[in-house]
Amino acid sequence: MSIKGPLNGIIVVDMSRVLAGPFTAMVLSDLGARVIKVEAPGKGDDSRSFPPIKNGVSAYFSSVNRGKESIALNLKDDKDKGILLKILEKADVLVENFRPGVMERLGLGWEVLKEKYPKLIYAASSGFGHTGPYSKRAAYDMVVQAMGGIMSITGHPGESPIRIGTSIGDLTAALYAVIGIVAALYDRIATGKGCKIDISMLDCQVAFLENAIARYLLSGTIPKPLGGVHPSICPFGVFKTADSYVIIVAGNDKLFETMANVIGMPELLTDERYKSNPDRCAHVWELKADMERGLAKKTTEEWLQILEKAGIPFAPINDIKAVVEDPQINERNMIVETEDPDAGVVKMAGNPIKMSSYDDPHVRVRAPHLDEHRKSIIDEFCR
Amino acid sequence: MSIKGPLNGIIVVDMSRVLAGPFTAMVLSDLGARVIKVEAPGKGDDSRSFPPIKNGVSAYFSSVNRGKESIALNLKDDKDKGILLKILEKADVLVENFRPGVMERLGLGWEVLKEKYPKLIYAASSGFGHTGPYSKRAAYDMVVQAMGGIMSITGHPGESPIRIGTSIGDLTAALYAVIGIVAALYDRIATGKGCKIDISMLDCQVAFLENAIARYLLSGTIPKPLGGVHPSICPFGVFKTADSYVIIVAGNDKLFETMANVIGMPELLTDERYKSNPDRCAHVWELKADMERGLAKKTTEEWLQILEKAGIPFAPINDIKAVVEDPQINERNMIVETEDPDAGVVKMAGNPIKMSSYDDPHVRVRAPHLDEHRKSIIDEFCR
């Protein structure tokens, strides 16, 4: 049932819920691993009940659990726990995102598992990691977005803070976990040994601050939100048009000249305030206002065509409908399909890792129904 | 010079500039790979001149190129190109982020390289990928943020669009590239063959939309920005205090009851509008206004202590200074140090992949000066 990929033959036990852990396991599945999702009996992964739901199938759950098998196990029941232990005998990777301490209370902590399964790679994702003073605190995506600094540098200056619209706290942690897991699989070929990978969502937010830390520590200035403009290239940002907005990037003098002419504002070129990129950066808000007087004369759609013809880097601000319909995104197979017997066709984001050595199928194996693979899994692992 | 890690012995040639490619190679270096950065003679990687600069050293450049070696090569010069080809004979991975077509014009396209070096893993990152109608267009982080949909779901409702404060367009692409590279290294052990990995920054933005695509396609409703609140849990978001803001998460009824009492607003508990989570979600802005009347009586610092004691999930909105000084972040070794002979100590974000099998050193090898390792590299690869 796994798709062809570099991780064919690898068995992943996914004991995780909602987002960070399930997304980790889904990327492994996209790379060809076989993923067995272990869920709580009755309701399963919490995200199975997240709206919108069609004929009992959650779009949220479907989009982060495609390609997996499901078995429902009560880990406080000895018989069910025995089934898990049998699966772990043949598994290569365990993914979990419980609060630190939960696996230990279930008798499934790394210290126990590494003795029984020395080749097992144990990947834990949690809000703050398994060490440190906040380790036991509850965390959610927005908690780590807030504590990790990104909210302090996103938004319009002077306005109340906003959440980044997708759960980058979970998703970044998921990708770092995948990197750790695949590197550990590579390492295991030489050492014969597994390891524990301890991913903290907060750590990953810090790693994603780009240069903000080095910049602050070298300059002493605390970075602030900049709305829709760039700190050191100008013009580079969001501009208002007759009907909506457009992104224009024209930082060097040649692009600036072309841009000023095509938007019908040649007077910008003789303005002392806009002579060079540093001059323009020093007058960023005035330049924006001036450009928007010219841009107000046409719609975004009209400007996009003019800017493309003139060779000026540009972008529309796509909503999700425009993303799903975009020709480039579709040509790259980034909207894939699954077919569910109850919900019908469910479309979702594809796999962005395009490798020349493997196909990138458009139709993917759907997310499993709760406990759907119980019989085949028990037949295979428990005889 | 490499640190100990699962990729010890792997040689990476980093021909990339600025962010997506350099960040990819830095993560590989953090995993123990040896990274040789090939730069243009004279000025090197463009980011060497990005401010702030201390004694000739850019904080930006330093923070995404730690642990690498540098050699300056003019790839249009036959002698220098010969040096690159000699290095590639022993290399495992090539990382580049030129605009599609540039490597081909240099005679270094994948079709040529795979014949000469069948084991080479060639990882390209570009704005739109190497295929599709937009492939040749220039892209910048903000271009793919705009086209990939995230800007359409971030910000306060009705306000002008904002850029996410870090370059997630580049960084997400970098992590997906690392996953592809490490998976290809794993695969190569069995197949003996390299491959090309074609990463598009736009594709990676689509993969990071979380459930927005499936949600839109199942419900037909285009997701909108939600400011600082959560779409389906309430209260969950940003709240104003006497002096700044605080994040409070109290979605279930028990947490809501505790929260209402500790903020001195027990009247919320008898209000029909706030009886259950769905009720609260339907009156999210009224509840926010009511809670903020209570929260206005104390400072954020006071509320943090009260909320922690009461067991209610909370967070401060840290600025970069607070991040750098945070005890959890420091305990997790997420602020590491390098020592540059010219700039002195440069601190930066550490490696969030904490593996039980390897150390996580606090002092890291600094970013190289331009062409610093020319002699040792030529001595090693060209004799």
Notes on the structure:
The structure is a homodimer of 383-residue chains. With 383 residues, chain A is of the alpha/beta class. Helices cover 38% and strands 16% of the residues of chain A. The first copy, chain A, is built from 16 helices and 14 strands. Chain A has a six-stranded parallel beta sheet, with helices on both faces. In chain A, α1 packs across α7 and α7 (168-191) packs across α8 (201-207). The longest helix of chain A has 24 residues, at 168-191. Chain A is elongated. The mean pLDDT of chain A is 95. Chains A and B meet through α2, α6, α7, β8 and α8 of A and α2, α6, α7, β8 and α8 of B. β14 of chain A pairs antiparallel with β8 (195-200) of chain B, so a sheet runs across the interface.
Task: Write a concise synopsis of the structure shown.
Two copies of one chain form a homodimer. Chain A has 383 residues and is α/β, with parallel strands linked by helices. Helix content of chain A is 38%, strand content 16%.
Instruction: Evaluate the radius of gyration of chain A.
Output: 25 Å
Strand order of the largest sheet of chain A: 5-2-1-6-7-8
Structural class of chain A: alpha/beta
Largest interface (CB < 8 Å): A-B, 141 and 141 residues
Strand segment count of chain A: 14
Q: Which of globular, elongated, flat, extended, rod-shaped describes the shape of chain A?
A: elongated
Low-confidence stretches of chain A: none
Tell me the β content of chain A. Answer: 15-25%
Oligomeric assembly: homodimer
Helix content of chain A: 25-40%
Largest sheet of chain A: 6 strands, parallel
Distance between the first and last residues' Cα of chain A: 21 Å
What is the ordering of alpha helices and beta strands of chain A? EHEEEHEHEHHEHHEHHEEHHHHEHHEEEH
